[in-house]
Task: inverse folding
């Protein structure tokens, strides 16, 4: 069982966490968003092999946060409270 | 020299001391130019090469594989073949694959050991039985064989199932596809490779794509670890690594890569002669011809390119398997592994020309690629030969994500992927 670092609770078992998507995938603003741009936000992913930065939720405390991770060897290099770049607010 | 496989050639070679067999496929050096290049030496890529040569007469083809053929998901799946899907588009594509599997050994002159042993998907509640009835109706309307099973039917087919009154997931019945079954996964890869090679396709292993040759806004070939190879049409069938190649070609795909694991037990005497799927435990079990129980479950929950399973998910799979079959409690597990699968939001494949003209996609099969190999190959070969969609592949074009016309088998068939 891998431990993931929740920035609010500290290291906890991976089964307490849920993947929430790639960090920085911001919802397009405005009324006239093209179908392609909207599909890009909804569906298209970078899905990187190697270093990634992702949004996760720690289900037991309910907080969303950003985690930097390697998608090949699964090593976690850090986690932080969500910044403006990750959720746009 | 013996090329054709038959009982007679086996007998003759026996008399000749087995000295006349030729290698199943050639391993030539890559040429600088081909009519078509296929990236990925798994089942889908190899089948594409074969059908390009057989159906379309395009034989000046290179198949490029970064490792060894059949070493990815084709060698890592649980060998199940079925076509009991909800939507007509899915029934057409998986039905095509299923019908080709039935005659594949003969077509390829290679025994892929397709065994129509039936597939049973259980229902564990009254509500699940109602969903099962709806599903059976839809599948029958799609022209696919499927029956609704009562508890008695289930008991007849899998008497060793856990029917005890205090079972955590009691059996209410299920759906049964009698023509579903299993095939020998390695043989599918090797059979397609051998047949394609005999038709003139160059199968080139240990040849990794490092970049695409893009000229005038079109894909004109690939740069590989063994030099540049030019072709007017390039197809890619690389499953969990589709996003990595797409990034090199300058576009994104609606794909998330996850590890999907499976495991096998030590070989035991014949005890289960069908494939049993329990949606509530998330586990399915069949028995290989060697006697191993082949056990699969749901995806690991963490996006990954690491071809190994996560212990937590394996524990859940084993627990589910024991709930289904308490009789297996003393069984020793022999091997466990994982493959990287390409999961798409609607759990349906992506087939069609990519945003980079001249580059064609076959990906997005998620956890269900093995059963679709003959169809994926037929349809990508059609695209590479004609530049146009086959009627069966058109609904699966990448453009469905911008048009909103998804084929949501995750909801339709309740697949976990």
Result:
């Amino acid at each position: 069982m891998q431990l993931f670092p929740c920035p609010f609770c500290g290291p906890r078992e991976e089964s307490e966490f849920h993947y929430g998507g790639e960090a920085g995938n911001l919802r397009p603003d405005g009324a006239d968003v093209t179908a392609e741009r909207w599909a890009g936000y909804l569906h298209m992913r970078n899905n990187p092999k190697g270093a990634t930065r992702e949004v996760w939720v720690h289900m037991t405390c309910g907080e969303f946060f950003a985690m930097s991770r390697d998608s090949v060897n699964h090593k976690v290099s850090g986690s932080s409270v969500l910044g403006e770049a990750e959720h746009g607010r | 020299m013996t090329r054709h496989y038959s009982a007679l050639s086996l007998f003759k070679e026996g008399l000749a001391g087995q000295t006349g067999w030729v290698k199943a496929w050639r391993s030539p050096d890559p040429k600088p130019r081909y009519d078509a290049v296929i990236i990925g030496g798994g089942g889908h890529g190899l089948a594409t090469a074969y059908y390009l040569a057989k159906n379309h007469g395009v034989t000046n083809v290179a198949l490029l594989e970064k490792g060894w053929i059949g070493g990815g998901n084709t060698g890592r799946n649980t060998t199940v073949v079925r076509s009991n899907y909800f939507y007509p588009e899915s029934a057409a594509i998986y039905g095509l694959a299923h019908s080709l599997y039935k005659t594949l050994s003969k077509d390829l002159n290679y025994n892929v050991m397709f065994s129509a042993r039936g597939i049973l998907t259980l229902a564990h509640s009254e509500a699940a039985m109602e969903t099962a009835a709806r599903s059976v109706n839809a599948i029958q309307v799609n022209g696919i064989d499927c029956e609704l099973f009562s508890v008695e039917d289930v008991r007849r087919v899998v008497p060793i199932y856990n029917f005890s009154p205090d079972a955590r997931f009691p059996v209410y019945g299920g759906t049964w596809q009698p023509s579903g079954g299993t095939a020998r996964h390695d043989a599918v890869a090797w059979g397609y490779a051998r047949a394609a090679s005999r038709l003139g396709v160059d199968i080139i292993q240990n040849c990794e794509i490092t970049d695409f040759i893009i000229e005038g806004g079109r894909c004109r070939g690939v740069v590989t670890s063994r030099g540049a190879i030019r072709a007017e049409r390039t197809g890619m069938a690389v499953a969990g690594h589709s996003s990595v190649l797409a990034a090199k070609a300058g576009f994104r795909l609606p794909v998330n890569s996850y590890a999907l694991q499976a495991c096998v037990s030590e070989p035991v005497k014949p005890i289960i002669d069908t494939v049993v799927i329990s949606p509530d435990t998330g586990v399915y079990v069949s028995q290989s011809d060697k006697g191993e129980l082949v056990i699969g479950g749901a995806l690991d929950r963490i996006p990954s390119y690491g071809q190994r399973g996560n212990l937590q998910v394996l524990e859940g799979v084993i627990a589910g398997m024991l709930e289904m079959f308490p009789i297996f409690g003393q069984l020793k597990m022999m091997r466990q592994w994982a493959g990287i699968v390409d999961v798409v939001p609607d759990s349906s494949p992506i087939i069609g020309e990519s945003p980079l003209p001249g580059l064609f996609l076959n990906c997005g099969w998620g956890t269900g690629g093995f059963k679709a190999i003959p169809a994926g190959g037929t349809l990508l070969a059609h695209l590479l030969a004609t530049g146009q969609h086959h009627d069966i592949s058109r609904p699966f074009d990448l453009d469905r994500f911008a048009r909103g016309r998804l084929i949501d088998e995750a909801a339709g068939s309740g697949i976990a992927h």
In short: Chain B has two domains: 7-108+185-254+346-412, 119-181+256-343.
